[in-house]
Every structure is written in structure tokens, then in C-alpha cells.
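Record now logged for everyone:
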Amino acid sequence: MFVPVRAPQPTPPSARAQDLARRLKEEVDKFERQYPGTSREDLRAAAAIAIGEESVTVPPRRKAAAMVVAVITAMGILGLVMELTTREDSGAAAAPWPMIAVSIAIACLAVVAAVIRRTRQ
């Protein structure tokens, strides 16, 4: 049985929101002409302060990248520890842990690429 799924349609911004966006864009452009090199982080922080946010959060891309780097590092350390603990001194074939660790690292790098692409959209 086929059940159609309809994705929720985003509601268009109100006329008031569109007017505010236009005014903000004009002010940001004027500010960037006065202070070239203004970063997106500065703009985010200023917007958060303007609407009364108490703390400025870390941009999601940096947070996601830091988490993925931590996971990749942990997997690499885990793979190294497993290789060192399973190594046989009798000359038998080594366990395939390095290949598993490399596979996990490649999978994590693919996840990093997907997260970065998704946050840029």
C-alpha cells in the first residue's frame, strides 16, 4: 500500500519580516563598507545581541567539525590500541584492526563532508 507523504511547505515570511530584512541588509551593507572584512560570526553575534540573546552560540559548522574531528581522533586511537593489544609475537598474521581503523576514518571523513555540505546550504 502506498501512502503519499507531503513535506511541509515553508511559510513565506510576512511583509513586515521582508521589510525588516531589507532594512537590515541596507544597514549591514553600509557597515561592511565602513568596516571591510566583517565576518559572518560578527554579524551573527550582532544579530543575537540585537534581539536580546544572552549568549552567542558557536556556529553550527564549527561545532559539527569539532565533534567529527574528536570522533575521528578517538577512532584512530582505538584502532591503534586494538592493533597493539592483539599483535601476536608468534609470527601469526596480525589482526585486521588497522584496516578497520582506516575504514572507520574514511567513513568519518565522508560524514564530515556531508555535514559541511549540509551546513553550507
Q: What stands out?
A: The helical segments are 15-34, 40-50, 60-86, 97-120.
